[in-house]
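ok so for the tutorial part 2 we go from a plain amino acid sequence to predicted structure tokens. step 1 is just haveing the sequence, like this:
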Amino acid sequence: MVERAGAHRGKQGLEYFEGVSAQTAGSNALCMHVVTIPPLGRAKPHLHESHESAVYVLTGEAGMWYGEGLREHVWMRAGDFVYIPANVPHLPYNPSEEVACTGVIARTDPNEQESVTVLPIKDPGVAARQVALTEANWRLPRIDVRDDNCPARPRVQHRRLRFLGPAVPGVCRT
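step 2 — the prediction. this is what the tokens look like for a chain of 174 residues:
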């Protein structure tokens, strides 16, 4: 068991509470931490070289720019999962003036910060929203997570899981 340890500031500019890593648990291929984005806080544009990440949002809401030139955007809130493929530039931020956003983050880098590369990309700011995100109107588009590589599996659609990146040939994501 790993007890929640002290916080540290990552290269990307966010506060992390250390959990499982090579340093705390002797992990060889995984780290898992709690990240908090304070009100109006934001990371620096960055990517994780050769390592995948997954985030589960515990509290609050966040926006994230991602992809080449940070041209794509996704909103996420408590209860959502997001998958970030290796080497995908991204910049998460908290648009709230009052509420922190907290999530559990898992990465295939047991040393967590070793694969972080801060990028010289201009921060695009806060994305515009057409409608305020509330419990009553929050609906993600359906995402088909079956591809031609998995014809035997039934069609699976999920409203609370976001895949940030293209389908990987030969890999089934159901």
